[in-house]
């Protein structure tokens, strides 16, 4: 499945293995029940813990990460038919573009598949590296701790054999969580990357209109096809946004706080090994959020570039009815569809920079108060 779409092939295979899309097997119930139970024990821990600030900051990060993971999984299941329809349409769009004889479009498809494949593999590698950090962290502290701070009412989780059992349990579900969290991000970023290809393909079609400029029926047909394709792009981006906008709102709210907390944790940990593990935590969330914001920003820019491509067709030399079509395309492209944060703010690099600035400002304030 999706062998011709390497940018999402691996992500779909992993999500399908865990029965989150396309299949309905026992693996879905195993991964969701085990991870949901962990989140409830983490919540109980956060309300009842009396441990120090290092443990509270670190386990707050873990709680938000796991909550975001199971939220993605449940929303993916809730909108499973919409996701499957979106992926089916993406496969159809890819097939249509592959039928093009233009080398430029073929090169675009080859490049996006190569980039998307390496990005998905890199994200998964960072996720697995972070999983090792979760597992090894308890070995580098002076007291007995668990990879993820959690409490079960009536059970002392730090006494044997409960500690060993709970550590083993958490290590079993860690790869499950990684395979629920990372592939989802890679899948959505892959969908955004394909949207960029669609925009560039439309720009290329507009730039080649001059080939038929003297054949009025043919140029009218080509311009109408471009308008229909522009509407397909708008609909495609709107569907991706409707499925992800509130998940990205949660990530937006959580990322700044987590980055600030982890930077602060970096200066108060006891050993270099702990510092390296915290750096791995930071690298994972930074890589995930940067890839999303980078390509979402590029998608918006390429939608704006459609207006420039339409204007550069020398539309004023076309027949009057065709000129009106081109003007409509230009006007619509000047209000580009975008991936939004909670349907309020488009995801751009400027928003990402503002988020980093806010995180660093609060980190500096915490550092001054602490010292």
TrEMBL record:
GO terms for molecular function: odorant binding; olfactory receptor activity. It holds the Pfam family 7tm_6. GO terms for cellular component: plasma membrane. The chain crosses the membrane at residues 29-47, 59-78, 124-141, 167-197, 246-269, 275-296. It is found in: Cell membrane. Keywords: Cell membrane, Membrane, Olfaction, Receptor, Sensory transduction, Transducer, Transmembrane, Transmembrane helix. GO terms for biological process: signal transduction. This is Odorant receptor. It comes from Zeugodacus cucurbitae (Melon fruit fly). The gene is ZcucOR49b-v1.
């Amino acid at each position: 499945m999706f062998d011709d779409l390497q940018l999402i092939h691996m992500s779909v295979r992993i999500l399908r293995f865990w029965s989150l899309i396309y299949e309905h097997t026992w693996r879905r119930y195993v991964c969701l029940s085990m991870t949901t139970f962990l989140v409830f024990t983490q919540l109980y821990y956060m309300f009842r813990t009396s441990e120090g600030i290092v443990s509270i900051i670190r386990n707050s990060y873990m709680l938000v990460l796991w909550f975001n993971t199971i939220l993605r999984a449940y929303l993916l299941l809730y909108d499973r038919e919409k996701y499957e329809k979106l992926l089916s349409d993406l496969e159809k769009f890819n097939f249509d573009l592959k039928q093009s004889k233009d080398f430029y479009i073929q090169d675009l498809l080859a490049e996006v598949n190569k980039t998307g494949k390496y990005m998905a593999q890199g994200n998964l590698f960072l996720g697995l590296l972070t999983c090792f950090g979760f597992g090894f962290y308890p070995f580098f502290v002076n007291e007995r701790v668990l990879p993820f701070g959690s409490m079960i009412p009536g059970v002392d989780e730090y006494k044997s054999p409960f500690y060993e059992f709970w550590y083993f349990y958490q290590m079993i579900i860690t790869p499950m969580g990684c395979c629920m969290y990372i592939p989802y991000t890679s899948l959505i970023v892959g969908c955004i990357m394909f949207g960029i290809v669609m925009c560039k393909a439309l720009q290329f079609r507009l730039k080649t209109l001059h080939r038929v400029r003297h054949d009025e029926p043919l140029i009218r047909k080509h311009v109408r096809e471009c308008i229909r394709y522009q509407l397909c792009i708008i609909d495609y981006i709107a569907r991706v946004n409707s499925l992800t906008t509130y998940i990205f709102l949660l990530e937006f709210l959580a990322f700044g706080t987590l980055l600030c907390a982890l930077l602060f944790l970096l200066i108060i940990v006891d050993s270099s090994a702990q510092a390296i593990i915290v750096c791995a935590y930071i690298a994972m969330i930074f890589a995930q959020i940067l890839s999303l914001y980078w390509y979402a920003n590029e998608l918006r820019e390429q939608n704006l570039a459609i207006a420039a491509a339409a204007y550069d067709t020398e539309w004023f030399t076309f027949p009057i009815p065709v000129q009106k079509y081109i003007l409509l395309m230009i006007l619509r492209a000047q209000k580009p569809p975008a991936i939004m944060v909670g349907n309020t703010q488009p995801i751009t690099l400027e928003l990402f920079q503002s988020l980093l600035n806010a995180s660093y400002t609060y980190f500096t304030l915490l550092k001054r108060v602490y010292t």
